[in-house]
Design goal:
297 residues; alpha/beta; 10-stranded mixed β-sheet
């Protein structure tokens, strides 16, 4: 981005017992081509040595800071706490077991500044394979396009977006701490509603890792995740109906049931594994037909 003063990007990362994953996540951030970063790690009551690992990175890099909350409060509370501590001009929320391309922030910020967008949206990659992906830069201004178009590539996971800080603060956006599921869907769609312009960025990937034992998985064991998914959708539908775009959310929910299908092929010919991603779960099929695993989001 040349010699121009770079805006500060705050990267908010909640974590809970991720000793095996947090180093890769942090390595992908500290080695970014874009250097003006503030990394806010939010410990959500970890009981392993994740905090010790984070401390070693904090001692080596002054851009990283640690915030602690108690009792495994969940991603919404942790993200809100990180957001309150953030001082950057732009905000990005990451999951602690994920990682990003080394030119992620440079590409996302350059495109945002060039287009005047309030939000930028990246591609995603899972299991080392790009999912149905953005192929060209797209500027979206109509409400329908802002909400529906990004959902073609994944159902509004908050980690796919870099937000202009003023968009969040001016509209008093926070994650709903009463939800342990769909809290990021609700936050993302509200942000897209208030945004005037968003941009889809084709040349960088957010690498998402699905695993058991994540923050949301731990909270899911308390038996509330199913009801919270329904309640999250209801809150979103009520918000949309009051503001006259309930039909768009209905379309989003219908499209969101099945977000994407991807087939992994041997020698580009033989279907070995098929992945069907839904709004609430991801299912894997051996040879494209035999169900072998289901991961609930």
């Amino acid at each position: 981005m040349g010699s121009v003063v770079q805006p500060l990007v705050s990267v908010v990362i909640p974590f809970y017992n991720v000793r095996e994953f947090i180093p890769r996540c942090l390595e992908s951030i500290i080695h970014q081509s874009y250097k003006n970063l503030e990394v806010i790690l939010v410990d959500d009551g970890s009981t392993d040595d994740s905090v010790s690992i984070c401390d070693s990175y904090i001692n080596a890099d002054s851009r990283i800071k640690l915030v602690k909350i108690q009792n495994n409060s969940g991603p919404a509370t942790a993200r809100n706490e990180g957001l309150r501590c953030a001082t950057g001009d732009f905000i990005h929320f990451m999951d602690s077991d994920d990682f990003i391309d080394l030119n992620y922030y440079e590409s996302m910020l350059t495109t945002m500044l060039e287009t005047g967008a309030d939000i930028s949206c990246s591609n995603r990659c899972e299991l080392g394979t790009a999912m149905p992906f953005i192929k060209q830069t797209m500027i979206l201004t109509s409400l329908n396009d802002r909400i529906i178009e990004p959902a073609k590539y994944a159902l509004h996971n908050v980690w796919r977006y870099v937000f202009k800080r003023t968009l969040i603060t001016d509209n008093k956006l926070l994650f709903d701490e009463s939800l342990v599921a769909n809290e990021d869907l609700l936050f993302s769609v509200l942000a897209l509603y208030y945004a005037k312009r968003i941009v889809l960025v084709p040349d960088v990937f957010y690498h998402h890792v699905e695993r058991r034992g994540s923050i949301s998985s731990c909270r899911a064991k308390r038996g509330t995740i199913k009801s919270d998914r329904s309640r999250g959708w209801k809150l979103l539908k009520d918000f949309a109906r009051e503001r006259g775009f309930g039909h768009i959310i209905h379309t989003l929910k219908v499209k969101g049931d099945l977000v994407s299908v991807y087939t992994y092929k041997l020698f580009s010919l033989i279907p070995v594994l098929r992945k069907r991603t839904y709004s609430r779960k991801t299912k894997y099929y051996l040879f494209g037909i035999l169900p072998i695993m289901t991961i609930r989001h």
